[in-house]
Design a protein that fits this description.
Elements: H1 8-23, H2 30-41, H3 45-59, H4 70-78, H5 96-101, H6 105-108, H7 130-139, H8 142-147, H9 171-174, E1 180-191, E2 208-220, E3 228-242, E4 245-257, E5 265-269, E6 272-276, E7 281-287, E8 290-297, E9 299-304, E10 313-317, E11 320-325, E12 333-338, H10 359-367, E13 372-374, E14 386-387, E15 398-401, E16 405-409, E17 412-417, E18 425-428, E19 439-448, E20 454-460, E21 472-478, H11 483-489, E22 496-500, H12 509-512, E23 513-515, E24 526-533, E25 536-541, E26 544-550, E27 560-563, E28 577-585, H13 591-600
Parallel strand pairs: 4-5
Antiparallel strand pairs: 1-2, 2-3, 3-4, 4-7, 5-6, 6-9, 7-8, 8-11, 9-10, 11-12, 13-28, 14-15, 15-18, 16-17, 17-28, 18-27, 19-24, 19-28, 20-21, 20-27, 21-22, 22-23, 24-25, 25-26
Helix pairs in contact: 1-2, 1-3, 10-13
Length: 611
């Protein structure tokens, strides 16, 4: 099967995707707008745009302050026209899946509106959004066409418990709605009543939700002026205060208010109350004795309850952040600084930071003679599909597990794993290496979607144990702050972990594991090399040595390569994110080789202090 960049039609759809992604972070030129409109109207264009919109809305907010996220466009486009045609349980103003549930409201809601004419929302556009609104009337009529092609079957973000209501409730009727869980990604929960939250469920007053790992999104105050979307990043705990109110006990979350007016939404925190105007977005952090408020957009007020504060009321303008640090027997320390999107995994889009791998990179890797080289550019085979090995070991193809997603960056395609409830990944069609290896290297590009405990790549024995598990001689993982990795990392979570051990060995986990010196980045590409030279084990990230120690055992022979999960048929410890350019070598790559590969991908090398 040909990859998506192998014929003119796919090149056209690739250009369409590129323009949509670009529109999230910057304004398009008139020529680009015209080209985008033409591409969406072409064959398969609307369906292709719908798929990308669906991905962008799932957990996407552009890091650029002046961007117009796809969710906002959909909200503006369909809010008024669909109001008379869809029940209250179907309406979700920020998800394209709900547009599909409207039965094609994009094309049917207003018979008088012609193709290409912007929707009439009936809303008063805030002054701060006027420029954006003028812009999308020219460039984004295609959202209506595309959204009507979304499949009803993909209602993972829609409301799971429908109600029989013929029209939208009034603001007064909606004001008593409880917070509702609308999406989850790789979530591990610990609920106060031992009930695992489910998408579509409301959170009753007094309920405490403890998110051990993952990202979850709550809708607060639907259909009210204080409507907001709250994204919780595990580990964190929140509690429902009754009605449409929410509190943060500890951890990290982001809030985006969808309503209008001043003081539209408030959230209680350990350091006081944070109040947001409509059309604002913030990030909150509460970890031990340190609390932070980051204002990304709009305006926020902070009323503190911290004893010893010289000022209890703060007004933040766009781009401001404030930190409160409490120390024993000393006055509270209050510092204002610049707000940072990079501190919040859910504030960054999975569609940005493109990996533009070209022929220069491929040539550089092939010159290093990999035994296994999987590029994910195209699938081959009938029945069980696979990625053909471009390395020198025969028949070492990567057989597909489940139905992974794909992401296109220019001419380069990457695999996206962990987004479904079923297993998704790849495993080698045969065992490797033929003999034990004293020296080896595993090289690949990794883009974790969030902080979580997930298996990026491992080498395991095909012989299943009586309890159903498999033994591993090598693992490369992302870790997070929960009971397992917290015990291993000595309070240093969110690291890449590289484990090497002899099959059947009783050596302790701490003696076989390397943890990177620094946290990995969420939603950003990182070049990883895990290697062993004799008894010396090393972990490199972006060309920088992150960790090393001694390990006496060689790599076991006749093991299989597995990508995306720890066991071939289980979602336990699945990796959530993107992977590309996997290469395995029966020797150690030199530092010069590693860094030449990174440079060939037009990425920056991170140097060690001694370099």
């Amino acid at each position: 099967m040909k990859g998506p960049n192998m014929n003119p039609d796919n090149h056209r759809l690739q250009t369409l995707r590129t323009l949509i992604v670009k529109s999230q972070s910057e304004s398009l030129s008139d020529a680009e707008i015209e080209e985008l409109n033409t591409l969406v109207a072409s064959e398969n264009g609307a369906a292709e745009a719908a798929e990308l919109i669906d991905q962008l809305c799932a957990f996407t907010d552009s890091g650029a302050k002046e961007s117009l996220p796809m969710a906002e466009i959909l909200s503006e486009l369909f809010c008024a026209d669909a109001a008379e045609n869809v029940s209250a349980h179907q309406r979700n103003p920020i998800t394209p899946r709900t547009v599909a549930a409207m039965g094609g409201a994009a094309s049917q809601a207003s018979p008088s509106r012609q193709a290409g004419e912007p929707a009439r929302t009936g809303r008063t556009t805030p002054v701060s959004q006027t420029t954006h609104t003028d812009r999308w009337t020219k460039a984004y009529w295609w959202v209506g066409i595309a959204a009507s092609h979304l499949l009803v079957a993909s209602l993972a973000w829609s409301i799971a418990k429908p109600q029989t209501v013929s029209s939208f409730p009034s603001v007064e009727a909606s004001s008593a709605k409880l917070p509702q869980l609308v999406s989850m990604t790789a979530c591990v929960w610990r609920s106060s009543n031992d009930v695992v939250p489910a998408v579509g469920e409301s959170i009753p007053a007094g309920e405490v939700l403890s998110l051990v790992e993952g990202i979850a999104e709550l809708r607060i105050g639907e259909q009210t002026p204080g409507e907001a979307m709250v994204r919780i990043e595990g580990p964190a705990s929140v509690f429902a205060r009754g009605g449409d109110r929410l509190g943060l006990q500890n951890g990290t979350l982001t809030v985006k208010t969808l309503g209008t007016g001043s003081k539209a939404f408030s959230i209680e925190t350990p350091f006081g109350e944070v109040v947001l105007d409509g059309q604002s977005s913030i990030g909150l952090v509460s970890q031990g004795s340190v609390d932070e408020v980051h204002l990304f957009k709009g305006r926020a007020m902070v009323d503190t309850n911290v004893p010893g504060a010289s000022d209890s009321h703060f007004v933040l303008e766009e781009g401001d952040a404030v930190r409160f640090t409490r120390k024993a027997d000393t006055p509270i320390e209050i510092v204002k600084f610049e707000a940072s999107f990079s501190s919040f995994a859910s504030a960054r889009s999975t569609g940005f930071d493109p990996l533009n791998i070209g022929q220069d990179y491929v040539d550089a890797v092939l010159a290093s003679d990999p035994k296994v080289y999987w590029r994910f550019q195209e699938l081959s085979g009938e029945g069980t599909q696979y990625i053909a090995n471009e390395g020198s070991s025969p028949d070492m193809n990567a057989e597909m597990i489940g139905a992974p997603s794909w992401r296109q960056y220019g001419e380069n395609r990457v695999v996206e794993l962990g987004l479904s409830a079923a297993p998704t990944g790849f495993q080698s069609s045969k065992a490797w290496p033929p003999t034990p290896l004293e020296n080896y290297s595993v090289e690949l590009w990794v883009k974790p979607q969030l902080f979580h405990h997930g298996e990026v790549l491992c080498l395991y024995s095909p012989a299943q144990l009586p309890d159903g598990r498999y033994q591993h001689t090598m693992m490369l993982e992302t870790t997070a702050q929960h009971y397992f990795t917290h015990r291993l990392t000595n309070s240093a979570p969110n690291r890449f972990r590289y484990m090497h051990r002899k099959l059947g060995d009783t050596q302790s986990l701490s003696a076989t594991s390397l943890f990177a010196d620094k946290e990995y980045e969420s939603r950003a590409w990182q070049h990883i090399v895990a290697q062993k030279e004799g008894s010396h084990q090393k972990l490199w990230i972006n060309g920088r040595l992150e960790a090393e120690h001694e390990s006496p055992y060689p790599l076991n022979n006749h093991v299989k390569v597995l990508i995306g999960q720890i066991y071939p048929s289980s979602v336990y410890r699945k990796f959530v994110g993107q992977i590309d350019e996997v290469a395995l070598y029966d020797r150690c790559l030199s530092l010069d080789e590693m860094r030449s590969h990174i440079k060939a991908a037009n990425r920056l090398v991170v140097l060690n202090e001694e370099d």
